[in-house]
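Q: I'm building a small set of examples for a reading group on sequence design. Run inverse folding on the following structure and report the sequence directly after it, with nothing in between.
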């Protein structure tokens, strides 16, 4: 099964390397801006950094940063920062040699076949008062709800073409994400959403300017249940 997971990671990594839109990078920056307020301590682990689009910010927030990436191709694309250690491994295989103050997982949990089991592994890598910060795409985003009304999806939780290209196993909402974290033994301390998204990434990329995009990022604070992205802050 782990060989199948590795193959899945390797196949989906091509999308991150070759098909990311400028909006995707902007959303990664918004994820960083949203999660930064919850950073704690000096030692951090970033799980699933892809090619390092959030890593370039995190190196300035922590004295020590480890990055754990399942795709060797993507891991090699991350520059050799002085305070970063790189680990090529699936979560299922990784054995940490230290505990962390903060663990960041942005757009990772939807890629994991057994989320509760692996959240339990991740929990063991945290210090006693450490924090796990998770961000994932939201099933109840306005653009997915519109797709249901248009007959493009049978329901908000159906995997669309982009989900399949990215190797997703599921699409979360805040309730399901909260349930998985609690079942793994975490205590949830904060939750919310960012970026209200009524259209697809391609449509936004072609028709919106930066001012419009930023306005809908700010609007997300008012409508967390139906944002494109949701997040949870959890502790042991």
């Amino acid at each position: 099964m782990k060989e199948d997971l590795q193959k899945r990671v390797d196949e989906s990594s091509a999308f991150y390397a070759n098909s990311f839109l400028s909006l995707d990078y902007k959303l990664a920056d918004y994820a960083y801006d949203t999660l930064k307020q919850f950073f704690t301590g000096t030692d951090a682990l970033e799980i699933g950094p892809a090619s390092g689009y959030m890593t370039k910010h995190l190196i300035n927030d922590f004295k020590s940063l480890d990055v754990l990436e399942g795709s060797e191709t993507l891991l090699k694309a991350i520059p050799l920062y002085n305070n970063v250690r790189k680990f090529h491994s699936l979560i299922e295989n990784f054995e940490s040699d230290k505990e962390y103050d903060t663990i960041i997982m942005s757009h990772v949990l939807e890629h994991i076949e057994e989320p509760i089991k692996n959240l339990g592994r991740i929990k063991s890598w945290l210090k006693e008062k450490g924090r796990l910060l998770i961000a994932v795409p939201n099933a109840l985003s306005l653009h997915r709800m519109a797709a249901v009304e248009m007959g493009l999806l049978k329901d908000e939780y159906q995997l669309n073409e982009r989900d399949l290209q990215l190797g997703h196993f599921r699409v979360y909402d805040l309730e399901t994400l909260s349930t998985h974290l609690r079942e793994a033994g975490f205590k949830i301390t904060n939750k919310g959403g960012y970026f209200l998204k009524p259209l697809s990434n391609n449509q936004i990329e072609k028709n919106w300017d930066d001012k419009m995009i930023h306005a809908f990022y700010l609007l997300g604070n008012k409508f967390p249940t139906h944002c494109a992205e949701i997040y949870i802050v959890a502790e042991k």
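The two ends are 29 Å apart (CA to CA).
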